[in-house]
Amino acid sequence: MRLDNAIIAGVFGLFFGSFLNVVDLRFGHWKSIALSRSACPKCHHVLAWYDLVPLFSFIFLRGKCRYCHHSISWQYPLIELSSGVIVFSLWWSINPGDWLGIIKAVLAILLGEVMLLMSLQDWKEMLVHDVLFASALIIGLLIWLVNGWSLITVLLSLAVTALPLAVLALISKERWMGWGDVLIALAVGLQLVYPLGFIWFYLAFFTGAGIGVILILLGLKRGKDPVPFIPILLLSYLITSVWGQAILNRYLYISGFR
Ligand SMILES: [Zn+2]
Question: Domains in the chain: how many in total?
Fold first, then answer.
């Protein structure tokens, strides 16, 4: 049952991913998302429902527009798949059993989806809209409210998530870390409360440093070039949600605490 539910949720996630692609396209244009129908960005032909089935349309049309054969960006299937993975893994890890559980799962998923949209903007433009940071913060506060964490739990959580990132942003004068990353850490710290936030921070930090070093060694980046960090924060969020407790148990076992 648990796997079945997570798979059904994951399929919804694929469709939500194609919605995110539309949101991303229209960001800043202030065009209504609900009223205007999706069209090919090249030939502007209005797309039919069968052109919009997540992943499958891209595979069957071999990544080309049905009408003008213009290549469709890899962004579309990638975002759809990522969204499916986000919904599947978070639904699986929370495994809601009642309405409150469902609300908690939906909020955790929304935070992941906002981070996915941020990752996309971070990757393409190294610039994320303020609206998204505000959304992440509001979702974080709702998560606090719904889960009813005590103030001491929240303070402990933020001390191992947002605080270290804020210190890094301060001492590097925003070269390693931006204040946007700190805001994301604040929201994540309200979902992955202490001690899980601790795992999230270390996974993200070492993955980020590792990828940075590899890119520099391969000559793809120079030491001063910024590396988009939000996709790594998102990846760590998913891994910690699913395996965080297991990693923690293992760590405590090795350290002789258990
Ligand atoms: Zn076209």
Answer: 2
